[in-house]
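Re: your question about MADS-box domain-containing protein

S., sorry for the slow reply, the queue was backed up all week. Below is exactly what I fed in.
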Amino acid sequence: MYMSRKRVKYEKISNEAKEKVLCTKRVESLTRKANELSILCGVNIGIVIHKPSENNAILWPSPEVFGDRLQQFLEFSGFERAKKMIDHEKYLQQRVNDAIEEMSKSQYKKELKESQLLMNEILIKDKGFSAVDLGQLGCLRSFAAQILKKLRLKNDELNDQERQMLTPPVPPSPLSMPNFHMIVSNKDQI
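Result:
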């Protein structure tokens, strides 16, 4: 049986011994994950961990390799680095746009559901339209428009099916029919 982990409060730890132990564990975990990412994705990763109160910094994977990777990164032209950042910005903007669109769809579905419930309440409970305010009337209008749209699409679909059933099948063209005369004459030769 496993014990559940306690939630860590993200604030400065006052006990220096606990802070040092936690920092060591977290650094080990970070470098292990960085190593996995480097191997799995084939990327160069360099990590600098520096505590202002100490003079030494941790350079991962090693000071020499870190220096080489930093030099490679700095050798990229500003244009290349900016290009990659623009791609990232476009990606983030697309994510934001997708989230806004999803939110709009959810809002629209919610309004339709509310309109459906309101319509049921008016028709079933026989309240009438006098108890409905302008906002609710707008919701009912959009609900009615949605129902009409679905009915039109279904009507068009049924009309297309009816046209297909009434249209006689087109006979195949003479070019696509096999030449039976040639087949018979070939049998005679055998």
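The two ends are 84 Å apart (CA to CA). The first strand starts at residue 47 and ends at 50.

Happy to talk it through on Thursday.
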